[in-house]
Amino acid sequence: MKENKRTAGHLMALFTVVVWGTTFISTKVLLGAFTPIEILLFRFLIGFAALCLADHRRLRPKDKRHEFLFAAAGISGVTLYFLMENIALTYTYASNVGVIVATAPFCTAILGFIFLRDEKLKAGFFVGFLISIVGIILLSFNGQRSFHLNPRGDVLALLAAVVWACYSVLIKKISSYGYQTIQITRHVFFYGILFMLPALFFMDFHWQFSRFKDPVLLANILFLGLCASALCFVTWNLAVKIVGEVKTSVYLYLVPVVTIAASVLILHEKISAVSVLGTVLVLMGLVLSDKGKAAGKNN
């Protein structure tokens, strides 16, 4: 029974990264009519509303200190991560951001080991991390240009990886208190949206609901809000609760692989030999990273 639960956790993590790996298509479509901050707020407002409908019961923190953890998860996993990633894209190459943000599993492993002490790391994890990063570099650059550092954007991308790692560790900690996963996600979304509001005054934001009359735009924002945000944050949080923050985070290596596959299947882009090699390396790294962890007290 326990093994079936763990398998379900891995499947939820896999499902989540498959969806997250295809969101670039919807985002690309929406960027023709919306700014990044508009997409971000609308998708999480939709996600929050969906979670309220799914479970409207009020979450009552068992300890006042738990409220701080929820707020920290909201500002890290929702507000800061997405804002930093979007802003980083305005200062540096998308390929740079893709590679740097892919260090999130490594950051998660380090933070999890320091603060939770529940997933011990072995040499295989670090070897797998390095192999996956090489694969992601090949996927991101496809051998067409060299890696150029752009300090402002690259540092923001690295900070985005760190705050996502913080989010994963916080969710693992919050889940250990026995709250329902949908309620956890809804409460985190609330704080994420709350901390997002001040950014509206400094970034290019307009409500203009008339844009949603376009069925294509409406369908894509609903996909981001209902599936990529509401549903996938729930499945991700469940996966973290079941299999641990480190084992779940290594699935993030697959995001660029899914993106490449989606480009071929949906946008009919051609796949190169370099992309195939990159995909193989990412998968090898994923396997090695997963085997490079010893079971901890919560696993």
TrEMBL record:
Pfam families: EamA
Membrane topology note: Multi-pass membrane protein
EamA domain residues: 8-140, 152-288
Hydrolase recorded as keyword: no
Main location: membrane
Family (UniProt): Belongs to the EamA transporter family.
Protein name: DMT family transporter
Organism: Blautia hominis
